[in-house]
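Tokens for chain A. Residues wanted.
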């Protein structure tokens, strides 16, 4: 998640082994022999990718031998043909374009429509902002650095480039975690108060503060080094490569393993609750409608989390393997492996808007409104209503909810004998809605339980649509 360089193995014309990383090439061009441990670690850390290309500052031996071959004879084993560079450029360009514009549209859909401003969607705004920012400020810059092994963007952006990506990934994954915990509380214990708008903002602010603290060492130790014919951006750790490795293992645990474990547990419990079986007795259509809506929201968020986990897993495996088996950094195809794993990790920023559009009718309506200028996009009147600002429209469903609440009250307060006649008249006067046939009076207690299970006093119907 910080600056990086492509894997480059530089050798002289006589075949003498030189250093392993592209950011040592200039020094080697001056005739520096391969320097065992530190050289290998520098190559590894440059290859470590966007969890930062941190390393100890490269130091030249005190007595460097004269070069045995002219500099012009030095060649890069990992130079790619132009057609391959064009394909990689297209692949990374698509990721950036879809991620930035897709996530900006998600932010607009939520903030511009009051009906979309729910607790879950506030966290989705934070997630979209993190993904769009990382795609815009990190992906292409890292890709250029990987291809050219030279830093073109100055010292200040070097610090930002090493600092911000870890911050953005932390904010993204913990926004997903907050949504999982919120879904858990809403479904498992619906009678407890939900997060207010103020509390949600405090949680989001806390996530960013913790993200800044975790990534601060990357900013503190970032440096650029101007070498003969090359400028490098890297992180100079005070205690060298070992400290770098420990730091990034901690980062992997905090931004990947731990939050995925929490979300795995919460969504497993929620899934068992929602898909594990029906509540005994006859239940009304309103219950089934709300249950179906809850399942859709949980299903969508599970797909988002699984997508994130799949996209980042190869990259983390790549980092660990190249740290343990340093000889892999000299493999002929390691640059292609790195570019592929890094592309997959960065592509995680573009999938969420696609998932929302495919699985949520209101987001789908919002995307249609955003692209209504296209000749083949039509927004129906029903889709327009989906994004209206009114929370509870005067429809048959809202009346049905009122009837459900009234019936649950008749269970709690038994009528006296003197009121039996009036009560029976009221019951006979109750309109019979065909869609309400599932809620029978003999099972009114079950209907009351269902109503409290689905509609807590702190939850809006819009939370599950």
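Reply:
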């Amino acid at each position: 998640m910080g600056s990086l360089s492509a894997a480059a193995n530089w050798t002289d014309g006589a075949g003498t082994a030189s250093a392993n990383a592209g950011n040592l090439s200039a020094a080697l061009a001056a005739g520096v022999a391969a320097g065992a441990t530190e050289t290998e670690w520098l190559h590894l850390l440059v290859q470590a990718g966007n969890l930062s290309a941190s390393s100890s500052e490269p130091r030249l031996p005190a007595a460097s031998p004269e070069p045995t071959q002219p500099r012009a004879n030095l060649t890069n084993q990992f130079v790619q043909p132009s057609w391959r560079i064009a394909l990689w450029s297209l692949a990374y360009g698509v990721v950036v374009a879809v991620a930035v514009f897709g996530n900006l549209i998600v932010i607009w859909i939520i903030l511009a429509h009051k009906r979309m401003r729910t607790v879950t969607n506030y966290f989705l705004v934070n997630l979209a902002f993190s993904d769009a920012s990382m795609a815009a400020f990190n992906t292409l810059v890292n890709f250029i650095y990987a291809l050219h092994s030279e830093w073109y963007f100055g010292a200040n952006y070097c610090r930002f480039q090493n600092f911000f990506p870890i911050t953005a990934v932390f904010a993204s994954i913990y926004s997903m975690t907050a949504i999982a915990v919120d879904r858990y509380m809403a479904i498992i214990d619906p009678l407890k108060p939900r997060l207010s708008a103020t509390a949600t903002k405090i949680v989001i602010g806390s996530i960013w503060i913790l993200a800044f603290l975790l990534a601060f060492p990357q900013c503190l130790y970032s440096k650029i080094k101007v070498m003969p014919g090359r400028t490098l951006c890297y992180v100079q750790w005070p205690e060298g490569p070992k400290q770098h490795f420990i730091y990034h293992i901690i980062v992997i645990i905090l931004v990947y393993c731990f939050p995925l474990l929490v979300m795995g547990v919460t969504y497993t419990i929620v899934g068992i609750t929602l898909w594990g079986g029906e509540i005994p007795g006859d239940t009304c259509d309103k219950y089934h409608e709300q249950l179906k809506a809850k399942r859709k929201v949980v299903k969508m968020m599970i797909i988002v989390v699984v997508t994130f986990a799949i996209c980042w897993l190869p990259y983390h495996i790549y980092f660990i393997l190249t740290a343990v088996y340093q000889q892999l950094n000299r493999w002929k195809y390691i640059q292609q492996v790195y570019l592929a794993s890094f592309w997959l990790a960065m592509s995680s920023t573009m999938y969420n808007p696609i998932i929302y559009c495919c699985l949520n009718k209101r987001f789908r309506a919002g995307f249609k409104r955003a692209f209504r200028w296209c000749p083949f996009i039509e927004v129906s009147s029903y889709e327009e209503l989906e994004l209206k600002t009114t929370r509870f429209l005067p429809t048959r469903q809202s009346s049905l909810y009122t009837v459900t609440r009234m019936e649950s009250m008749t269970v709690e307060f038994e009528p006296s004998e003197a009121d039996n006649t009036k009560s029976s008249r009221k019951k006979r006067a109750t309109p019979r809605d065909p869609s309400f046939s599932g809620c029978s009076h003999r099972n009114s207690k079950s209907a009351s339980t269902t109503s409290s299970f689905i509609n807590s006093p702190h939850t809006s119907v819009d939370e599950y649509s």
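Residues 2-75, 391-438, 440-462 have pLDDT under 50 and may be disordered. The radius of gyration is 29 Å.
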